[in-house]
Predict the 3D structure of the following.
Amino acid sequence: MNFFRFPGIISLGILILVLLFIPSGVIALESFSGDQVSIDTPVVDDVFAAGGAITVNAPIDSLIAAGGTVTLNAPVKGDVIVAGGRVIANNNIGGKLVAVGGTVDVNGDVGTNALITSGRVTLNPRSRIGRDAVISAGTVASSGHVTGNLSVRSQSFADTGSVGGTRTFVKTEQQSLAKIFTALGILFSIGWLILGLVLIKIAPARYHVVVDEVAKTPVVKLVVGFTGLIVACIVLVILAMTIVGLPVALVSGLLIFIGIIFSVIFVSSSLGRWLLGMLTVDIKDWQAFVAGFVVLSILFRIPFAGPVLLIVTTSLGFGALIYTVHDNWEVITGTIG
């Protein structure tokens, strides 16, 4: 059970990376993405899904999912690794359950271990954990059965269920402001991940143009991006101060913010390409993006070094975006002859 000593988001990231780094001949993935994802036919394969709302209505082999709401209405043969605003497991899971979310409700059996990090966790009467359960949350309610050990860290714990092994409860203090920001950061990262997957789906050609640009003279792109961001901030402040230029500043600021969000996405794909490229196996665009995004998300949370790396990543991606816009300006404005 050493795995459960990692913080939830780090554990989730490591598991996703492990699965992505296994050659495609060993493990295959069926991928689903979109605002509303509904799996209504059986999938005899491992499933990766990302979207606003994900619903599994038919049996599948295993699941890796990131979404606003993830609902399991059908059995999953193997492991479930999920991150979402709300996670609802209404059917049986044959392997382990690893969940990070705002709320997590377990209404079925979990074959082996359960690791859950959430604001609120509920193990309902129909739930049964086959081995150990480790839960870290604001509030926890357990009325199910845990065959092995149950470890809970929370502000409150309503325990009316049964435990075959050892029951451990550590009462935590009310969430500090830092913990709240951490939770919001995790949820924001989930949305960021979904945005990248949607962007790859709806505009793959334009996406590749910018990602390819990241790998060309990255040092130059880093300097140009950092300088561009500084200059843009100064110009926006000056425009806002003139009052007359305030509308221009607001619109321009929104466009720059969108560019910053996309910058991390582009660099994530470029990094993922490089990492997975060392394995000399065929990789898909979404696999490269997820691998790079997970690595960067973990690195961004390193004290002191994380914020610096975020600035470097944003500057590099923003610089690549500037070069792409410059090289395709006539096409963008429609002035090409």
About this structure: The chain is about 45% helix and 30% strand. The first helix runs from residue 8 to 21. Residues 2-171 form one domain.
